[in-house]
Amino acid sequence: MGICLVMVGCGPRSATPDLAKIYNPGAQRIHVDRNPIIVIPGIMGSKLVDSQGNAVWGVFGPGGVNHRKGDGMRSMSLPMSASGWPKDDVRADGALEELHVSLGFNFHFKAYSRMLAAFGAGGYIDPAHVETGGVDYGDEHFTCFQFAYDWRRSNAENAVRLDQFIEEKARYVEKERKRRYGTTGRVKFDVIAHSMGGLVARYHLMYGGRRLNADGQMPVTWAGARRVEKLIMVGTPNGGSAYAYKNLNEGLKLSSLLPTIQPAVIGTMPSAYELLPPEGDGALIDEHSEPINYYNVDEWERRGWGLMNPDQDKVLAELMPDEGDPGARRNRARSHLKKVLTNARAFHRAINRPAALPLGVEVHAFVGDAVSTASRLQVQGDGELSLIDWIPGDGTVTRKSVMRDLRTPEEAGSPVKGPIKWTGAHFVFSDHVGMTSDPAFVDNVLYLLLERP
Fold first, then answer.
1. β-sheet bridge partners, residue 392
2. In this predicted model, what pLDDT tens digit does every residue of 13-35 receive, in sequence order?
3. pLDDT for 308
4. What mean pLDDT, rounded, does the chain reach?
5. Nearest to residue 371, comparing CAs of 357, 351, 392, 356?
6. pLDDT (tens digit, 9 = 90+) per residue, 388-409?
7. CB neighbours (10 Å) of residue 128?
8. Tens of pLDDT along 42-78?
9. I need a labelling partner for 102 at 20 to 30 A (CA). Which of 5, 194, 363, 449 fits?
């Protein structure tokens, strides 16, 4: 009877750690040796605004553009061209802490607010985060930063901007340390990057502010290690995601409340192609289970995919109002598609070059592996795409992709092998977005940042 009572009393319960009680002393301890933090959100995780201050991304309703109309589509898309990367008047305007939807009544979809609160990354500190009951960094806290970026553009292009951002913040921290404590010390950062943000950070760590060359055959210099000590990647698709191709071909619908982002609009964005699995991974197969080269523009044109889908001609007309001839619009779209596919192939070649980490640099993976996640797509006989081969992941990115695990089925059970030399891997039982506020994730990251010897 006593044993039964003990067993009942010790039954499974849901418990979460008191992070404030554990980490407040470390968070409030002032010393120049602790690295400042940079938090980088994933794709669609930064607010975008136009030159008039209208929200291109982050607000649906008053104050935001209408993505169903031509002006809104053009604001969301990038200019198409055969070469170069034309600029537009859209810029990033902070991390997307919440997605605001106003449809006569308001919805607030939490994005990164809890993760930013946990690490105190609200510019320097956002007083609103105090209300979350998270870790208290104290009045002296000035060393957590958000890197907001235009996630439509190439991750390599944003890595160049990240390099500039880091140097700017390093000068700020040096100045503040000198003013407050009379000393500076060498400023290095710890970077926490979610999803696609990890690709930006990883490219930067490997190449610093160097631009991507035409074929991606670049010697790894680890130039970013000058300022980065720890890189923590959370659900990063280092091996791409099958869902990236599906979004490029079918568009993106975040919920029934929001308009679909048309395939042709997403198809203008270089970053969307950089989320595809690397060339040769066999992530897209035909109805006979033969691999399709999805980096070949002829395949997209022949099969009517993405920008080459005839059903997108009306959208192309909205995106190119200066071009009245449908054939000319289609040719421009094809040239742009060829350019971004070539760029994506080069990007993957660059970040998948194997190289040992330099001394003093750590790279950690936080991986979701509790949700069945599609790893491949197959073209059916009617031309429709089906997600297949469901394996452990976070519902968007597979465990295999985050780890960039190149083991074959015959090598199952042997140690992970791939181009990334991980310092550590940590597994979280949440979905792709849920990881950012999962207490186990926050607990482990705070330990790495504040307490680990």
1. 372
2. 567 888 878 887 777 776 677 88
3. 96
4. 88
5. 392
6. 999 999 999 999 999 999 999 8
7. 12
8. 999 899 999 988 899 988 877 788 888 899 999 999 9
9. 194
> In the numeric block, which tokens belong to residue 191?
């970077």
Handedness of CA 46, 281, 160, 174 (dihedral sign): positive
* Eight-class DSSP state of 212: P
Q: With bands split at pLDDT 50, 70 and 90, how would you rate the model's confidence at 142?
A: confident
Asked whether 392 and 228 are in contact (CB, 8 A), the reply is no
Output DSSP code: residue 184.
-
CB atoms within 10 A of CB 28: 14
How far is the C-alpha of 150 from the C-alpha of 157, rounded, in Å? 10
Residue type present at position 381: G
Nearest Cα to Cα of residue 436 among 98, 63, 7:
98
- Average pLDDT, integer, range 165-191: 90
Model pTM? 0.92
Distance from C-alpha of 332 to C-alpha of 312, rounded to nearest angstrom = 14
pLDDT band of residue 95 (cuts 50, 70, 90) is confident
- Residue 71: phi and psi, rounded to 5, are -60, -45
In one-letter notation, the amino acid at residue 172 is Y
Walk me through the domains of the chain, giving residue ranges and CATH numbers.
34-237+356-365+397-451 (3.40.50.1820), 245-350 (no CATH)
Return the ∠ at Cα 310 (arms to 305 and 316), rounded to 5°: 95
Which pairs with CB-CB distance under 8 Å and at least 24 residues apart come from 303-308?
Answer: 303/379, 303/383, 304/383, 305/248, 305/249, 306/248, 306/249, 306/263, 306/264, 306/266, 306/267, 306/337, 307/263, 307/264, 307/267, 307/268, 307/333, 307/334, 307/336, 307/337, 308/333, 308/334, 308/337
**Helix, strand, or coil (residue 21):** helix
398 sits in the region (left: phi over 0; alpha: psi -120 to 50; else beta) called: beta
- pLDDT score at 131: 39
Annotate 374-411 with b (16+ C-beta within 10 A) or e (fewer): bbbbbbeeeeebeeeeeebbbbbbbbbbbbbbeeeeee
Structure tokens at 62: 């008053």
- Strand arrangement, sheet containing 46-49: 55-57, 46-49, 91-95
Q: What are phi and psi of 217, to 5 degrees?
A: -85, 80
